[in-house]
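FAQ

Q: What does a record look like?
A: Structure on top, sequence underneath. For example:
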């Protein structure tokens, strides 16, 4: 089986290469032209983003034609392709993948809506790749992804609402009110529709971090072994502090700290940090 995903999964290039995962790039449209998110490091992107303020680039999903080309190139007789993508509540990428699959020559493609993004999407992609290497059948892998999706929580906060406002994700008045009140929203991805939903608010980033940790601890308790990934834009100190705080409250079996991809950073700015967690029990059967 071949595994395909997109760059919103925040999958490091060396990880994708080692596991033979094909990553379809999302695109960033700067005034001077379109750039694949894979062509920029996070720091290069944030430098450009801050330099062009108050303007903001736009983003674009992979086309159905691109997916068709990927699937056709990967297709082999008797071999499945599993294509796992960013939540349909946040992007049209999975729809592009489905349309691309209908035009792919000789390809047997199953498209999976991860109903999440970033580290949450990455965990599903990695689990599918690990299970595939272990010889799992497609139906068993799909069941594994269902378990992971149902038990994963992704929650984050933002230093400023400015980038959400510039990109049209929230109104300018709402962003201004948030700035005046020093509001730091704490947001998660809803399992019901794969869209953003606010779980709390704070006046400082320190307090927002505490809300994130309290939220995760209430969901998972202190004794359940977890795979936790902390994500950030350009907030290394806050990410490190968050990782330490999560370790102090929960049983962390595996922990990473990774950067948010440029294509997601368009809508958050550099001041984003948060975490995704999944119980190790959801990964039962994988080494």
């Amino acid at each position: 089986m071949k595994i395909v995903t997109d760059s919103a999964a925040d999958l490091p290039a060396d990880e994708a290469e080692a596991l033979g995962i094909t990553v379809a790039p999302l695109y960033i449209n700067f005034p001077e032209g379109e750039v694949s998110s894979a062509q920029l490091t996070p720091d290069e992107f944030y430098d450009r983003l801050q330099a062009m303020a108050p303007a903001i680039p736009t983003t674009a999903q992979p086309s159905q034609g691109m997916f068709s080309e990927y699937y056709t190139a990967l297709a082999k007789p008797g071999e499945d392709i599993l294509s796992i993508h960013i939540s349909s509540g946040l992007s049209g990428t999975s729809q592009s993948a489905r349309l691309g699959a209908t035009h792919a020559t000789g390809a047997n493609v199953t498209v999976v809506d991860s109903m999440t993004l970033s580290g949450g999407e990455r965990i599903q992609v990695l689990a599918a790749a690990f299970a595939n290497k272990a010889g799992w059948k497609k139906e068993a892998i799909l069941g594994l992804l269902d378990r992971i999706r149902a038990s994963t929580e992704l929650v984050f906060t933002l230093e400023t609402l400015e980038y959400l406002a510039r990109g049209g994700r929230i109104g300018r008045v709402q962003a201004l009110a948030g700035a005046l009140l020093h509001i730091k929203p704490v947001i998660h991805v809803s399992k019901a529709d794969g869209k953003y939903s606010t779980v709390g608010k704070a006046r400082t980033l320190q307090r927002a971090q505490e809300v994130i940790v309290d939220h995760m601890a209430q969901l998972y308790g202190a004794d359940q072994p977890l795979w936790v990934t902390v994500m950030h834009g350009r907030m290394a100190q806050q990410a490190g502090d968050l990782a330490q705080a999560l370790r102090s409250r929960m049983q962390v079996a595996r922990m990473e700290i990774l950067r948010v991809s440029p294509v997601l950073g368009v809508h958050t700015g550099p001041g984003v940090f948060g975490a995704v967690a999944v119980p190790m029990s959801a990964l039962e059967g994988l080494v």
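Q: Is there anything notable about this one?
A: The chain is about 40% helix and 25% strand.
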